[in-house]
Structure formats: C-alpha cells, structure tokens
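re: ur question from yesterday

yeah so i grabbed the chain u mentioned. its 231 aa long if i counted rite. heres the sequnce exactly as i have it in my notes:
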Amino acid sequence: MSADPSPALRLRRLRASAGIRAMLTETTVEPRHLIQPLFVTEAEAPEPIASLPGISRIPLTQLAAKCAELRLLGIHGVALFPKIDPRRKTAEGAEALNPSNLALRAIREVKTKSPGTVVFADIALDPYTTHGHDGILTEDGQDVDNDATVESLVKMALLTAQAGADFVAPSDMMDGRVVAIRRGLDLAGRTSTGSSPTPRNTRRRSTARSATRWAAPAPPAPRRSPRPATR
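ran it thru and got these structure tokens back, copy pasting raw so excuse formatting
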C-alpha cells in the first residue's frame, strides 16, 4: 500500500476566508502598539534632520503638544532622545547624571502636560560623552570600563525613573547592566518602573534607537577605538 502523498498539516484551511482569519488571527499591529521616537532640542524652533527626511528635532516647549497630536492618532508611546549641547559633554558623560539635563526635563514636560503618554527613556552614555562611545573609557583609552559604566547607567536609570519615565530602556552593550538596573530600581523603591532594552538590542534595526544614531550629531573621533563594539 502506497504512502498517502497529501500534506500532514494544511494550515491554509485556517486562512481560507476573511471571517476565519478575523476569528483566528493572533497578531495585529495597530497604532496603539507603536512607539514613536522623538528627538528633543533646547532650540526655539524645530531642527530638520538631514539624514532623516521629514523628521525634525522638536523644541522642548513643543514636546507635549506633539505627544497630544500622536495620541489623537492612537500612538500612546514615545521614546525620547535628547540633543545634548557639545559644551556639556565630557569623557565620563557626567551630564547624564545632571538632575536638570535635557532628557529629564523632557520626561517631566511630557508627564506633566500629556500624562497619558507612555514614556520610554533611553539609558546610554553615548549622547553625553565627548568620544561618542557608550561607556567610560579606561585610563589608556584602549577599552571600555564595563563595571564603571554600569554604575553610571544604574544612577542614570534611577534619575530617569524619578523624573517620571514609565520604562527605562538601556541601549548600550555593557555586560550585566540590565540586571543591575533592575536591581537598582527595585532597591530604590521604583518597582513600578518598567525596564526593557531599547528595540535596537532585539535587532529591530528600523526602530527608535537605530534611528537616533542618524539624528545625533556625529561625535569627534576617539583617539583610539576601544576593542568592544559598543556602537
């Protein structure tokens, strides 16, 4: 007796009509599922980003209005990326721990004037460092000091949570930083603040963090490139 040549599994039966598909579909993508990256500036007028046609950095004073506009479109989540004044950058990225820095003021602005907006805050040092890398470099400039960087990231995440961010989203490549950030938030009583790697770390290259790579001004070239690929 010959073997039955028909397929053992016929999934096309479950896609045979619009009614069946509507009843059985498991995944849908709607505006409410999206997170809009917003690039924030201290300038008084929007700043077009040449490498992102149609996208501009948004003045801090216009940020809440932009979030309200997005909510009318059904988009409730935003990821904020500040343009840091080069004069405030240091090798250690100290501006990241300034309680009055642009990123933290942007979070407060959104949560005060558009409280229904869900804020994802990027946690990384590269916007704040003169060399443009994600971490604090070793004294000889040959490597990234992983553990010193993680300490700064934990402090940065706590400040971000205190400012009102719903989620902290580390986008660097430091070993152990996700667990350290979660532990730091919990020990500080910020158990309700979510922690989630920025989409870039899940290889969704078209999402918020990969976009900000092109929106940020190019950093000065470091004297020597560290061995780990931190960006």
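noticed a couple things. The longest strand covers residues 35-41. also Confidence is low (pLDDT under 50) at residues 199-222, 224-231.
anyway ttyl
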